[in-house]
Amino acid sequence: QQIQLLSDALKVNKTIDILDLSGNNIGDEGMISLGEAFQRNQTIKFLNLQSKLFFQIKQVFILLSIRNPK
Q1: What pairs with residue 47 in β-bridges?
Q2: Between the chain's N and C termini, which has fewer beta carbons within 10 Å?
Q3: Contact 56, 49 (CB under 8 A)
Q4: CA trace torsion 13, 19, 22, 25 (10° rounding)
């Protein structure tokens, strides 16, 4: 729920360029929500999602698939 609020805010905020979400256990739905926000907000230049390696890999693939649809 909190990640949804952040995602909604990112959709309209065009000034944030660094986002550090390290240490947060963001699930699949949260990552999809963030990915949708990044489709609208192209100002993010640095995104830190550091957590367990398994989640890092999964998050990168979800974000890349949303940001670069085929």
Answers
A1: 19
A2: C
A3: yes
A4: 20
